[in-house]
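Title: Comparing notes on inverse folding

I've been comparing how different people in this forum approach sequence design from structure. To keep things fair, I'm posting one structure and asking everyone to reply with a full sequence. Here's the target:
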């Protein structure tokens, strides 16, 4: 028995032996009673003590994330693994978005210790161990246009694509403090030859009327292909109402009726 096992005690050591033998990444309340021959009360106490001591991490009530081996210190799962297991439990679809994606794509130098997530199951803030998440519940049709990779620990990291991230900086500007800086991000991305078509498709698929007007006007000023601008215009509903180019500034400026905007920069 190693020093870590001695610190854990017999029951906790048996717990980790069970988890490792079965290659368990998560453990649920109720499954240990027969395996370890313990009562429901003792099971609850065991899981509570292990989580409180940092040996395992509570994903939600009754569900715990277990390290692949007895940790040398407090167990700290990666951002992607904890999120993946949380959403698998809810059978949800998700993608990392907002400030987290801004940083991932190096659009912003601002680093956030909160992970923002669009998903179709959970809404609100969630703390998992030392990790913080803002879970934004959206309709199924607002999920898509993703870019993913697998981390060294086998977790799947799912981000909104760069084009989708740029669009959401305009669409969800009030939540993500996206305007007017998103306009500069789009200008910079297009100047590097990145595909404007992906941005247009993301806008048509996941945007709304306001984001379509704003992105359409911006692409128009950047003299992007007329065929793409026509796609955006054809998706707009007829209206005489005007919206501001920069929503946080006073609505004073020249009028662009083609895109229905007050250019208040």
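Reply #1:
Here's my take.
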């Amino acid at each position: 028995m190693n020093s870590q096992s001695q610190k854990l005690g017999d029951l906790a050591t048996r717990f980790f032996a069970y988890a490792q033998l079965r290659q368990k990444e998560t453990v649920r309340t109720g499954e240990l009673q027969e395996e370890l021959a313990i009562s429901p009360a003792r099971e609850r106490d065991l899981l509570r003590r292990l989580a409180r001591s940092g040996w395992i991490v509570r994903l939600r009530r009754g569900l715990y994330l277990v390290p692949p081996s007895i940790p040398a210190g407090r167990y700290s799962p990666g951002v992607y693994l904890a999120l993946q297991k949380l959403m698998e439990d809810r059978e949800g679809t998700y993608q990392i978005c907002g400030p987290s994606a801004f940083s991932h794509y190096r659009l912003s130098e601002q680093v956030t210790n909160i992970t923002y997530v669009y998903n179709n199951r959970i809404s609100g803030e969630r703390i998992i161990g030392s990790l913080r998440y803002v879970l934004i519940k959206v309709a199924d049709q607002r999920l898509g246009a993703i870019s993913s990779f697998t981390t060294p620990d086998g977790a799947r990291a799912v981000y909104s694509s760069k084009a989708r991230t740029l669009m959401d900086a305009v669409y969800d500007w009030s939540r993500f403090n996206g305007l007017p800086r998103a306009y500069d991000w789009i200008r910079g991305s297009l100047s590097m030859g990145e595909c404007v078509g992906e941005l247009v498709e993301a806008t048509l698929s996941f945007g709304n009327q306001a984001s379509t007007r704003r992105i359409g006007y911006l692409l128009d000023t950047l003299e992007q292909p007329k065929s793409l601008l026509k796609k955006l215009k054809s998706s707009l509903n007829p209206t005489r109402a005007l919206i501001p180019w920069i929503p946080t500034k006073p609505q004073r400026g020249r009028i662009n009726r083609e895109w229905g905007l007050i250019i208040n920069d």
